[in-house]
Amino acid sequence: MRQIQPLVDTKVLRPAESALALQLVTEMELLRLKAIARLHARGLPPDVGWDDLLQEALTRVLVGSRLQPEGVPTVVFLAGIIRSLRSEHWRRAASRSRRQTLRIDQANETVPHEVELRDPAPTPERSLSARQELAEIRKLFALDIVALQIIGGLADDLSPEQIRSAHGISRTDYDSARKRMRRTLLREGLTCERK
Amino acid sequence: MRTKVKTTAPASPEARFMRVLQALEQELLDASDEEIIAAATDLGMNPQMKGSALFAGLKYPARLQLSDFFELGMAARLEAEQTSIVVPDRATPKLTK
Questions:
Q1: DSSP codes joined into one string, chain B
Q2: Fewest CB atoms within 10 Å of the CB: A50, B21, B33, B74?
Q3: Looking at the predicted complex, does its ipTM rise above 0.85?
């Protein structure tokens, strides 16, 4: 019997492939976004991978649920979506934990008619995770004193000038440290090793 | 005149981490294509090469599965086809009360 060829190709394109085909991003931009997504996936539960963040961000742009404002470069726009996906994840996790607490309270009938409004401040779990992740980032630059001073200053919300004057770093040394930091971050972001 | 010292409450670990994360994100956004190629070369990878491992998780899955190497879907379909052509054995009479 003659085989009829299927009309539709069964290969499923990944959002990154579609974005490349549509020339929304270049291969280099994809690699830059990979490093950014890996950075933002730090501290997220293991079931949420960097690739989930990136492919989801690309999907939102492809399906039009996020519209790129005029004048904003695509990579910057996508990095913003990745950042908001991360925040969205934490918001969902917090509301899930609040719902669970409420359910436990209702089951115990400790507060049958009252709903406790909780402070939106970070939970102890989130604070601990943030502290651990910051320590992990410091570890990446463990042998680079200037890079560690820069990270400390950034965490304290200091401007580059303030960091330089606080630690007596020359502009050249500051710029070379930033270059080294970029190289380390890119290596961390592009590696094939699973973190 | 005395210098005024502005005292603020210490920022939460989350806020400190987010500031660092955002600053490092900016560093990556500022990275040039040459810097990306240099970092890839450090890792022994070449972005120009077809099927480069650099694109794992982008063009192909980061977590490889058996189905990426074998056509498991095809095997399942063949198995289904085989079972569908089995003719029920009508020779054996049904037991009735």
A1: -PPP----PPPPHHHHHHHHHHHHHHHHHH--HHHHHHHHHHTT--TTSTT-GGGBTTTB-SS--GGGTS-HHHHHHHHHHHHHTPPP--SSPPP--
A2: B74
A3: no
Per-residue pLDDT reduced to its tens digit, B83-93: 555 555 566 66
Looking at CA atoms only, how far is residue A67 from chain B in angstroms? 20
Closest CA to A102 of A115, A93, A89, A113: A115
> Quick one: tokens of B96?
């009735």
B60 φ/ψ angles, rounded to the nearest 5 degrees: -140, 165
- For the whole model, what pTM was predicted? 0.76
Nearby residues of B47 by Cβ (< 8 Å), 6 or more positions away: A27, A28, A31, B36, B37, B40, B54
Give the mutation candidate from A137, A192, A193, A195 for the B interface (greatest B CB count, under 10 A): A192
Find how far residue B48's CA is from the centre of its chain: 21
Q: Look at B17 and A130 and tell me if their CB atoms are within 8 Å.
A: yes
Query: How far does A111 lie from chain B, in Å, by closest CA?
Result: 30
> What would you measure as the largest C-alpha separation in chain A, in angstroms?
82
Q: Are B47 and B54 in contact (CB under 8 A)?
A: yes
Angstrom distances, CA of residue A65 to CA of A48, A60, B39: 21, 5, 33
| Other CB atoms within 10 A of residue A23 CB | 7
Token pair recorded at residue A124: 């102890």
Q: How far apart are CA A7 and CA B51, in angstroms?
A: 28
